[in-house]
Amino acid sequence: MQPPPRKRRISILTSTGSIGQSALAVVRHYPEWFEVVALGANTQWDVLAEQIREFKPKYAAVVDPYAAEKLAEENLGVEILKGDEGLNEAAKVPVDTVLCAVVGAAGLHPLLSAIGAGNRVAVANKEPFVMAGKLVMEEAAKHGVAVLPVDSEHNAIFQCLHGYEKSDVQCIHLTASGGPFYGKPRETLAAVTPEQAVRHPTWNMGEKISVDSATLMNKGLEIVEAMWLFGLPESQINVVIHPQSIVHSMVEYRDGNILAQMGVTDMRFPILFALTWPERVDTPMERLDLTRMNVLTFAEPDFAEFPCLALARRAAAEGGTATAILNAANETAVAAFRKHHIPFLSISDVVGATLDACRASQDYSLASVMDADARARETARGVIEQIGSLA
Amino acid sequence: MQPPPRKRRISILTSTGSIGQSALAVVRHYPEWFEVVALGANTQWDVLAEQIREFKPKYAAVVDPYAAEKLAEENLGVEILKGDEGLNEAAKVPVDTVLCAVVGAAGLHPLLSAIGAGNRVAVANKEPFVMAGKLVMEEAAKHGVAVLPVDSEHNAIFQCLHGYEKSDVQCIHLTASGGPFYGKPRETLAAVTPEQAVRHPTWNMGEKISVDSATLMNKGLEIVEAMWLFGLPESQINVVIHPQSIVHSMVEYRDGNILAQMGVTDMRFPILFALTWPERVDTPMERLDLTRMNVLTFAEPDFAEFPCLALARRAAAEGGTATAILNAANETAVAAFRKHHIPFLSISDVVGATLDACRASQDYSLASVMDADARARETARGVIEQIGSLA
Hints:
Number of helices of chain A: 15
Oligomer: homodimer
Distance between the termini of chain A: 61 Å
Largest sheet of chain A: 7 strands, parallel
Largest interface: A-B, 47 and 47 residues
Helix content of chain A: 40-55%
Number of strands of chain A: 11
Radius of gyration of chain A: 20 Å
Strand content of chain A: 5-15%
Number of domains of chain A: 3
Structural class of chain A: alpha/beta
Order of helices and strands of chain A: EHEHEHEHEHEHEHEHHHEEEHHHHH
């Protein structure tokens, strides 16, 4: 395994969350492979300062003004780019790959900035695809930029599709662990706390995505993400319950052959794949031991108790800005749940009521998406207040 | 799914065995895709006659002189090619693909004939690779001929490797059902009859390969086949017990990602794949239903009770004509077992004693291989006589 003739230049935006830290853990193993050009944070300037000391990037993007000031006081010899615009500027710095790991809708603009600058993107943030997947893929095509999925399911599908024709795909099977509450009766979920909801049974992830996993909205968002990433209609995207999370997803071809990607439940694997693609490097992580894993099971999903998946399919089938509305309502509801403003089971109520109230447009432009996003957040906040006043 | 602009011309040699009949069952579904040019049989002229009436090939190869005469009497308007040489002649007729499905060592010459004539080959017959894999692959390279594996394990690996670099392969995992006797104590196998040995738990196959599955020699032969097909050393070929036979085999890459091919246990799937490659067509067969299958399990193999696998690894590691000796001894021993001349457990004794007695050469030429094959058969027959006289 030879290092590349010149180091690959990468930016990780932002780098202080779960994915960002995992990515730097990977990069640490390959000093001859990667040069870190830009890192970033929303508020966690102290974590970012440590990362800057170790990886010596040229740029540090900091969204929060107070955090930017605190970082500046550290005198780390790094150029600090401030605010939302700073994050966009950092994404535009020419590199080999920008790892886009902002949480939520806030990731859309930095992703588009990276693509617009001609940077290849490794995307760990599914919300931009749910909001504006058509736009993202069109921009990527226009700028000749590869889009590499970091989500373990989509990374699996990418690997199973490589070298084959999309027109030969019968369907893709997204595997779903079911999250911490799958199979539990709905009435027992009424009292679920944010602390319980973020404890995922098989993956160690960020908090927002962990709540999405508990409601199964995450799988719904993944359906939309897969539609745009792989250019398939919602009807060709199947979900299968696989509690062990060893098979990360599958592609079924028209001739009945199924290709599956398997591995341990460790986000560093898809991150490593995306950062080194199209090359592969020896993993420093522990491999999957086929003979020491549990039995693998697959089951037809029963989502009656988890309405978020059906809501996501409804928005996906409607198209246009419906999925942007879905995403905005979900982000607003999850934030309210995490602040104990609404109970766990109300997350889907908020999303459903918002989808009912907001008319979707078939205009996929950024202005139209941002308008839908804003309207949906306002509507969702109204629904949340109502729920609060009834409690 | 458009039919091709012109029909694909295929020959199936021989066509009266398990693979040949499955292949014609596949071809029957695609009248617009395939034109059958040549079929063949050893002795089963009546089965062949039926096939000729249905598929109207131009040539029929018949190895057995009496069978050739009987077929000629049917006046089917087909050109009959007689004897071993007839089979070679049929393999040389220019077509898109020759499906090589002769049983045992007898398949080597027709395979080389097909390749030498520039015909792409789909190979269901592993013995030629075990005898002379180096020669087969060198001839294929020389004539620019693609070699498509039909064995379900190797077909799976072919699918999991496509589009990727061989140098990135950590290892391949051949899955093994274990056959009908895996896990049973050795002393209970002493009385196994040929009728019991040919009943495979998950696959419906020919008789010779079913006995090989029962002794686990089949997995040993597959290791050698994989070495040559994929250009990997024996040390990179792992065997894992997977009793359900749903995962047909896997490729593990250096970065820890594993790609697996899954499907039902039906040889028509790999046959269809090989005949239509690089295109894929809609399967007329029942697809794998992920949610209705058993749990999948994988276990470290315990081959203490099944010495054939260790004998195959020993021959594979020695290289040269050692695997030709292994194959000849095994064919001779299996034939003797099927005629009730030796007990089941003596198959491995015959192979082991023959490997001990016959010196292998590092000369991979056809003459050297055929010499090793002949010497090994003679030696094996001697061992079998000795066992018979002791019984």
